[in-house]
Design brief:
Layout (H helix, E strand, L loop, with lengths): L2 H27 L3 H6 L6 H12 L2 H14 L1 H4 L4 H23 L4 H9 L3 H32 L6 H50 L2 H12 L45 H16 L1 H8 L7 H27 L7 H5 L19 H7 L6 H39 L5 H25 L1 H8 L2 H6 L2 H8 L6 H16 L3 H6 L15 H5 L1
Length: 518
């Protein structure tokens, strides 16, 4: 067994021990249903700042984001501004939801919305959004963890086997400890997430030969027409290499699958509406429960301004750009290597839509020289993937219990019964996510794109409760339903449902489905 694999198992074992410790400790502290579902409204300032940041920026930020910067260039890197737009949702809604939760004793967003609108349809739709958000999102994250371990162990651990085993530990600590366990594990996961992105960026910069060498290589790449999207051909004010330019404000295309935009997908309006979609992370039902779980509103501002916008923002603008754009100069782009622009050949060619493996390949470049660091980075990536998933598992389990079981089947359910059904809800969500990830990767890709865009459709309902009294029950309920349909029929799943009969493809007019839904 290679030294890096031994170190990998050592660090994972230490990480698991920490997770299970907090699961058991939190289970002992959870005397009532609200203790279990929202940590007894007792989460402290620093725990929330770190936990909410870890929940907002998941394994997608760690593994997927650098891959897309590599695939689409700096035009996609503008999406790093989601470090500002995600917490902007929290700026608007979290404190007011916390006040309502404190005043009226709400545990779930369904309780708050159905109480305000005096109707149960909005409660059911909120649970539907929570499930449609949680299951695919969790499936994508857990699937990625299995893939990561498959790559790092050089095929020793099968991707599906790794995914099920890694998920078992999350199920144990989330199921036993509830949201308090999630919060305390997330504090460590936030630190690991940030540390991992920085170290991986430094590895990329080091392989490129430093800042000046990277700048020189990118300047040569920018002067060429090499790239997935070629050049912008007049869109955006000139004929530039599409890795380095936004292809216009908007393009009136029929959508992916019907018509391909010129010079790349990431027009100005696409970047904006994609960030709308990611704003759905903090307007999703899970974040309402995060707001209820605080003992005061003091943590909201530092989380939104310093941890998210400044801290993670700074890291993404530099270190994920080093990873993504640096990859072109390190062997990951065959055309660049052939043109003599590459600075090294430490990565395999990833141009055939293999960008998802970029980050694990960076880890492998130091496998021989610093094997212990590969183990640490693997745990950083694992923590990033599980941080978001754990919060969605816990909160969706709470909503299934409070909004369906307690509301309709057993209104007098005791605290013990509610905790039991909460744990069963968590298990149901994990198993559903794993089954989809194991047996239907295609369905996972289709559903994964819906998750955050669905969360964004909660905006009008939350605005009604917190700011705009004239939004009616019918308006909020029908608006939410219409928004969900709008998202579905401007995503790939819409074309699949209709057998390709729609006159548009995915994201027509280079507007993201979240924008169409709203």
């Amino acid at each position: 067994m290679a030294p890096k694999v031994v170190w990998l198992f050592v660090f994972v074992a230490l990480y698991w021990a920490y997770c299970i410790f907090w699961g058991i400790k939190s289970a002992r502290m959870a005397k009532t249903a609200s203790d279990y579902f929202i940590a007894g409204r007792q989460i402290s300032l620093w725990v929330f700042v770190l936990a909410a940041t870890a929940t907002s920026f998941s394994g997608w930020t760690f593994m997927g984001h650098p891959g897309l910067v590599y695939r689409d260039g700096f035009q996609y890197a503008y999406a790093s501004f989601y470090t500002i737009t995600i917490p902007f949702t929290g700026v608007l809604f979290l404190k007011r939801q916390w006040m309502l939760g404190k005043r009226y004793g709400y545990v779930t967003p369904g309780e708050m919305l159905s109480d305000y609108f005096q109707g149960d349809a909005i409660r059911i739709l909120t649970v539907a959004v929570a499930l449609l958000f949680s299951i695919p999102y969790l499936g994508v994250q857990l699937g990625a963890s299995g893939f990561l371990f498959n790559v790092l162990t050089d095929g020793l651990v099968d991707a599906n086997f790794g995914m099920w085993i890694l998920s078992l530990v999350v199920l144990i600590y989330v199921g036993t400890g509830g949201l308090r366990a999630v919060a305390y594990v997330d504090t460590l996961q936030c630190v690991l997430l940030a540390l991992g992105i920085v170290i991986t960026g430094v590895i990329a910069l080091n392989h490129a030969g430093g800042w000046d060498a990277l700048q020189g290589g990118l300047a040569k790449l920018g002067a060429s027409d090499i790239g997935k999207w070629g050049t912008t051909k007049g869109y955006g004010g000139g004929d530039y290499n599409a890795y380095f330019a936004i292809p216009g404000v908007i393009q009136w295309t029929a959508g992916l699958g019907k018509e391909t935009p010129v010079g790349g997908l990431w027009t100005g309006i696409m970047c904006l509406t994609y960030m709308f979609a990611l704003m759905g992370i903090q307007s999703a039902p899970a974040f309402t429960m995060w707001s209820f779980s605080n003992n005061s509103p003091k943590p909201f501002a530092p989380q939104q301004v310093w941890a998210s916008s400044f801290g993670i923002g700074l890291i993404l603008f530099f270190f994920t750009a080093f990873q993504g754009m640096g990859a072109h100069l390190l062997g990951a782009n065959g055309e660049v290597t052939k043109a003599g622009i590459a600075l090294a050949a430490v990565l395999p060619d990833l141009t055939a839509n293999k960008q998802g493996g970029l980050v694990p390949h960076y880890f492998n470049t130091i496998g021989e020289t610093v094997p212990w660091l590969v183990g640490l980075l693997a745990v950083c990536a694992l923590a990033a993937m599980q941080s978001t998933g754990a919060a969605y598992m816990s909160t969706a389990g709470g909503m299934l219990t409070r909004d369906l079981y307690k509301r309709y089947l057993n209104p007098t359910a005791s605290h013990t019964t509610q905790k039991l059904f909460g744990r069963m809800g968590v298990a149901f969500i994990v198993v559903a996510a794993l089954l989809v990830a194991t047996y239907s990767r295609d369905a996972l890709v289709l559903l994964g794109g819906l998750a955050v865009a669905f969360g964004f459709q909660m905006w009008p309902s939350l605005a009604a409760v917190t700011y705009i009294p004239w939004i009616t029950r019918q308006g909020a309920t029908l608006g939410l339903a219409a928004g969900l349909l709008g998202v579905i029929f401007t995503e790939t799943i819409g074309a699949t449902i209709t057998g390709g009969a729609l006159p548009w493809g995915r994201w027509p007019w280079t507007i993201h489905s979240a924008g169409w839904g709203m």
